[in-house]
Amino acid sequence: RAAEVDRREPRAVHAHYDKRAKSIVVELATGVIVHLPSWLLQGLEDASPQELAAITLSPQGTALHWEKLDADFSVAGLLAGVFGTQAWMAEVGRKGGRAKSAAKAAAARANGQKGGRPPVHTADRTARGHRRA
Questions:
Q1: Rounded CA gap, 46 and 24, in Å?
Q2: Which of 29, 44, 51, 77 suits a disulfide with 82, CB 3.0-4.6 Å?
Q3: Cβ neighbours of residue 54 closer than 8 Å, sequence gap 6 or more
Q4: Can you list the pairs that 47-54 forms with residues at least 24 positions away whose Cβ atoms lie under 8 Å?
Q5: Separation of alpha carbons 127 and 125, rounded Å
Q6: pLDDT score of 91
Q7: CA-to-CA distance for 52 and 19, rounded, in angstroms?
Q8: What gap in Å lies between CA 97 and CA 86, rounded to an integer?
Q9: Measured distance CA(50)–CA(94) in Å, rounded
């Protein structure tokens, strides 16, 4: 069974904090190297570089641990994009949606010139299974 788990579950062989890139770098047994922005991981967003550098791997290489920060992440979860609780992930998404940039402003203006979002007509809603009021 252990050999089967070894084949299926990603395992880290090394992890460190890259201070210049402000990211957690995880090297997998397959040779794949993953960089994760530290601010994206719940519990690590306000940590100092010294705290972030104190990463330990689980004996099997299936998890990353920060003792002082009381933070743990499974390697499989990180690879699947799970960077915290559901509420944390929703907040990260909300912050991204509020981001302001010249490109986002230009896209909003262009959409507005086209009339914005098209209105939903009663016939459209009925076709999608909504009842008329």
A1: 14
A2: 77
A3: 66, 67, 68
A4: 49/17, 49/19, 52/17, 52/24, 53/16, 53/17, 53/19
A5: 5
A6: 77
A7: 9
A8: 17
A9: 29
Helix, strand, coil shares of the chain, percent, nearest 5, are 40, 20, 40
C-alpha to C-alpha distance for 85 and 95, rounded to whole angstroms = 15
Query: In the prediction, which pLDDT does 84 show?
Result: 83
Where residue 43 falls among pLDDT bands split at 50, 70, 90?
Answer: very high
73 three-state secondary structure:
strand
User: Is the CB of residue 52 less than 8 Å from the CB of residue 38?
Assistant: yes
- Cβ atoms 72, 78 nearer than 8 A: no
Residue 78 burial (10 A CB sphere; 0-12, 13-18, 19+):
buried
Rounded mean pLDDT, 96-120 = 73
Looking at residue 117, the DSSP 8-state letter turns out to be S
Distance of alpha carbon 33 from alpha carbon 17, whole angstroms: 13
Lowest mean pLDDT among 29-33, 64-68, 75-79, 90-94: 90-94
Output the average pLDDT for the chain.
83
